[in-house]
Design the sequence.
């Protein structure tokens, strides 16, 4: 751990003096998906909305989960109308299904999109409201969730996202062509069932993109503005989920980064390497716990405009019909440029993160921290077939203003960066991210 931990969280006259954590409840291990029926019963579910990624419907593990629910004498109703990149329209449609079905529990089986869709459906069916009411300000009204939601068991099927551990649901707000979301502790699933057996048949690029999402969750949480430098929360008001790095979130990052550095390339390049894929799934959980309690910063803030303004790029392993830059890819394409910039704020942490990811930091000076970390990230990108920068997914200098405008609205994420970030700075970061090697 960073030797200057105490200094990193030094108190200040105006900064916050406390942080809040929500522990995720998890059942983890090969074969645990077959326990879902009993788990749902313990949570007093009877009539259950089961959100399933439409591409996974015919997989054995989905049948295993549904059989388990039926054997427990529960009534699962499957919903598969889930967008790869959810939109306000797809969230609303899922909410309408949830209202009609009068469910007393939710299950999600899929990646982040599926889990996030279930979170939103649970929210709007439990506490109906105008759609924009709960959406993050300034795009939405940022209204507080009135109380606890119906129980939700989230079952991730990729080695990434960590959505089962967070109270965050991300979607594409089509009218503004911008990604935004709903952030509230109440959205955190009641239970995550993480069964590494489900990752066996994942295509290489899906493992790479979800793996880099995990890597960036851990790096961003570790290097986020410390909670002691965030403005104090008014008394009685819960702290934001983007409350900044804190000693609790650090534990998740420190657990996740060495696992990712050692296993990401193996997990991507060898579908039979069950150990590597299992370890990545574990790292995703640790990083999810970290970013769910610290918040991400610039690579995520910048990623939403990159995904949202896609032209004609299609990622191998994803839908052949739809132009799409997967979330984890759009995050990591920005990361090398960002960490060169943010290293100046806390070089010890950047160097420490590079070491945990497997870089040789012997002899490296603190001034080298950003370069060492960014070089290690690009090594891992090259080793896993990630495109070489934003130019390789269709962007050019003429797109920089659009990307800047699309990302500058991500205030919660931008304000969680360890350095103040202007529009001009974002322009420079995007330009640097056009090509990495
Ligand atoms: Fe992410």
Sequence:
């Amino acid at each position: 751990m960073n030797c200057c931990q105490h200094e990193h969280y030094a108190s200040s006259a105006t900064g916050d003096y406390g942080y809040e954590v929500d522990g995720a409840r998890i059942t983890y291990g090969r074969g645990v998906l077959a326990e879902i029926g009993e788990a749902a019963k313990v949570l007093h579910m009877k009539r259950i909305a089961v959100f399933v990624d439409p591409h996974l419907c015919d997989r054995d593990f989905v049948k295993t989960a549904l059989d388990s629910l039926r054997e427990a004498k529960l009534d699962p109703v499957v919903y598969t109308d889930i967008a790869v990149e959810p939109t306000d329209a797809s969230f609303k449609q899922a909410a309408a299904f949830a209202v009609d079905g009068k469910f007393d529990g939710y299950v999600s089986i899929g990646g982040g999109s599926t889990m996030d869709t279930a979170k939103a459906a649970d929210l709007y069916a439990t506490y109906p409201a105008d759609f924009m009411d709960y959406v993050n300000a300034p795009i939405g009204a940022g209204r507080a969730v009135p109380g606890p939601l119906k129980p939700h068991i989230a079952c991730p099927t990729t080695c990434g996202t960590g959505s089962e551990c967070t109270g965050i649901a991300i979607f594409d707000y089509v009218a503004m062509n911008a990604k935004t979301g709903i952030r509230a502790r109440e959205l955190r699933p009641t239970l995550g069932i993480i069964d590494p057996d489900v990752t066996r048949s994942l295509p290489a690029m899906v493992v790479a993109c979800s793996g880099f999402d995990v890597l960036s969750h851990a790096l961003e949480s570790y290097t986020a503005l410390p909670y002691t430098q965030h403005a104090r929360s008014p008394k009685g008001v819960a702290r934001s989920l983007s409350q900044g790095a804190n000693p609790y979130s650090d534990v998740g990052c420190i657990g996740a980064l060495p696992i990712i550095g050692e296993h990401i390339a193996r997990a991507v390049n060898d579908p039979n390497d069950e150990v590597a894929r299992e370890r990545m799934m574990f790292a995703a959980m640790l990083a999810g716990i970290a970013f769910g309690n610290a918040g991400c910063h610039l690579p995520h803030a910048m990623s939403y405009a990159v995904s949202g303004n896609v032209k004609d790029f299609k990622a191998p392993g994803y839908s052949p019909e739809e132009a799409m830059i997967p979330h984890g890819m759009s995050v990591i394409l920005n990361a090398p440029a960002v960490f060169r910039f943010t290293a100046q704020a806390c070089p010890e942490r950047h160097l420490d993160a590079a070491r945990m990811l497997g870089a040789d930091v012997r002899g490296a000076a603190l001034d080298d921290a950003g370069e060492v970390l960014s070089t290690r990230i690009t090594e891992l990108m090259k080793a896993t077939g990630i495109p070489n920068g934003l130019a390789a997914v269709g962007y050019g200098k003429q797109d920089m203003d659009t990307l800047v405008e699309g990302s500058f609205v991500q205030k919660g994420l931008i304000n969680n960066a360890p350095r103040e970030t202007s529009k001009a700075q974002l322009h420079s970061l995007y330009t640097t991210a056009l090509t990495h090697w």
Notes: The domain at 5-20+208-432 is CATH 1.20.1090.10 (Dehydroquinate synthase-like, alpha domain). The beta strands are 26-28, 47-52, 75-79, 105-110, 152-156, 168-173, 178-183, 191-194.
